[in-house]
Specification:
Radius of gyration: 18 Å
Order of helices and strands: EEEEEEEEE
Number of domains: 1
Shape: elongated
Strand content: over 45%
CATH architecture: Beta Barrel
CATH class: Mainly Beta
Number of helices: 0
CATH topology: Porin
Number of strands: 9
Distance between the termini: 34 Å
Length: 151
């Protein structure tokens, strides 16, 4: 994404002893990049991820170190041009994260994760077949804050 993006994530995790496996889906709805003159692109990223984590309790906090991958669709549409077109590319990335969860009661916790995603390729988006608008970064930062429900 060309700028910092906010988007919802839904995740399901299974814990077994000190191991956790999580499946999640995330949608970054809109991030714009503009060129001189106002033309540019509006970008969206929809992805699903699989993470494996090692967890350890440190007092009331459950700390985790995670690794995994994600697959999705990065799309962009021209803005400020006479004939806006939609372009899309496959998003594949490896991920590494650290985080923790703090209990908020017997069935809820507050969690925070931060990490990086490293894409397997860096799609490039252009206007009018030649004018560069955006190319994915070689490393992207991620952070997630949320409420977990324990079953």
């Amino acid at each position: 994404m060309p700028t910092v993006g906010l988007g919802p994530t839904v995740a399901f995790a299974l814990d077994w002893s000190a191991l956790r496996v999580a499946v999640e889906g995330t949608f970054f709805p809109s991030s714009e990049a503009h060129l001189a003159g106002g033309a540019g692109g509006d970008f969206q990223l929809l992805l699903g991820g699989l993470l494996g984590c090692v967890t350890q309790s440190v007092g009331p906090v459950a700390a985790a170190v995670c690794g995994g991958g994600e697959v999705g669709r990065l799309s962009g549409q021209g803005i400020g041009v006479s004939t806006p077109r939609l372009g899309a590319a496959l998003w594949l990335a490896g991920r590494a994260e650290i985080g923790g969860a703090l209990p908020l009661g017997p069935r809820f916790n507050l969690f925070l994760r931060a990490g990086i995603a490293i894409p397997a390729s860096r799609p490039t988006f252009v206007l009018d077949g030649a004018t560069f608008v955006h190319r994915s970064s070689g490393v992207t930062g991620r952070s997630v804050v949320g409420i977990g429900v324990v079953f």
